[in-house]
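Reopening this one. Same input as before:
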Amino acid sequence: MFDTKKGKYSDEENEQIIQKINEGIEQGRREREILKELSTELNRGFAGIMSHVRKLRNQYPERFASKDNSSIQPPDTRLNSWTDQEEDKVIQLVNQYTDEGKPLSAAIMELEKQLNRTQGAIYQRIYTLRRKYPERFNKMPEPRPRRRRKLEDWQIQRPVIRSLDGSSPYDEWKGDTNGRSEVAAALEQVNDLRDFSPTAASKNSEPEQEADETEESMVLKAFESRYGHTNPATRDKLFRLMKRFGHTRVSIALFTLPEDKEFPATVVEFLEKYLEKNKPY
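Same output, byte for byte:
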């Protein structure tokens, strides 16, 4: 594969481009074919030639011949745009082949010969015309059934924040059957209360708020069953944690605290403070 020429176009190349295009238009040739020949003769990329011709038309519109001999081509006209006649031809031939029971690929191959377009461009134009003018087509393809995407387990699991030693409380909690059963039972009770609460039955305007209050009370109950009765300051702090991290995450952390390696040290520090505070005199 040969490398195409890069860089600025010389005056000789510009003159050759303008002369070649004007001669081709006078002969009735398609401008796309002329640009392909220029790309080969000048050893330039086709996209670069097409862009440079558009630039030359903006700079020297009077030097280019018009196809209809009326006025110059508008600067924003795309060289590969579809005309109304081409679109009518596409719709007519597609309807003819579908009425005869022939496949769409056969119509595309025939249009490729008549319009000098690639099969990909013709298929894309048929797709666009079907969306814009469905009433102009005798038959429309049946919509494909949309299958519900099945997510893998790793796509729906939340990320776990691991400690520096590589372990995570969640990994240890998975092996703790008692802890999992307690959390599951607590969450199940919360869901039952939410489903059969008077708020849900009457469809009041504040179901989510009451459900949150129910979950908070369940987590508070589980906390007090493990660590004893709480004072107002401790309850307020626990409620703030649930609002910040969520009820489920707080409940899981509540039952996995003993498995954390820093938990025993915290208990010993509290024990020391307790003994210092309640030592006999």
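So the earlier flakiness isn't reproducible anymore. For the record, The mean pLDDT is 76.
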